Amino acid sequence: DPGLLTLPDALQPLGIIHTPYKQKFAIPRQPGLVKEAVGEIYFFAPFNDINCFRGIEQFSHLWILFQFHQTLNKGWKPTVRPPRLGGNQRVGVFASRSTHRPNGIGLSVVEFESLSSHQGQVCLKVKGVDLLDGTPIIDIKPYLPYADAHPNAVGGFASDLPSSVAVRFSPAALTQLQQFSDDPQKMKNLIESVLQQDPRPAYKASQSGPQAFAICLDNLNIHWQSVENSIEVTGIEVICA
Ligand code: SAM
């Protein structure tokens, strides 16, 4: 009888993560694909206590559990259509890592970067995130290679690394990058890695002819177009707060 099981009415967020991803479009589908994407987790009381993190720097990688807060109100269905299967074929929700799932809980392994405390505010920096800016974090645990790494594991319909596309910058975009970014080389690497994942929706990727898109990364709006199987960054402007 599931009624006999007790669960907290609501999960208590430990804190919020800030990431360069200001919208869902173009966020990589899994962690580690865009290693340049840094997330900063800021904690709420009573978790905003450096003692809660004592020893964490001994681990190169961490598991983070979080709430898919932006899709929670969409509910879930028993089957989903993973983008990896072209968006047409259905698999069970529990055979997928879809955001549309009961309880809306996400799980990502990320790289530990640093832990700091400044004026009483603890900040945990991690790398390789696939989380939207402002995502509530509900738990953090060390990644244990002896237990968690399985070199012979089989990855089903998502066994291979997703294919990537070539990315180039127009001369205008390179100039704008120099003009608008505090660290142009770092931002260029981030943009390249994000676009190499080919964020076009599957149905668009199958259409021919150039198509124009824009993505927000940090405080920049990046205009790009796809030409056959490559991507060109055509212009960059500061628009996002
Ligand atoms: N690695 C996690 C997992 O397996 O649970 C996430 C996988 S999910 C397929 C990754 C996608 O979740 C991203 O591409 C992004 O579109 C979406 N996403 C990230 N943060 C989100 C949030 N807070 N609310 C809703 N969707 C989010």
From TrEMBL:
Family of this protein: Belongs to the tRNA methyltransferase O family.
The TsaA-like domain, residue ranges: 11-152
Protein name in UniProt: tRNA (N6-threonylcarbamoyladenosine(37)-N6)-methyltransferase TrmO
PANTHER family: TRNA (ADENINE(37)-N6)-METHYLTRANSFERASE
One Pfam family matching this protein: TrmO_N
Protein keywords: S-adenosyl-L-methionine
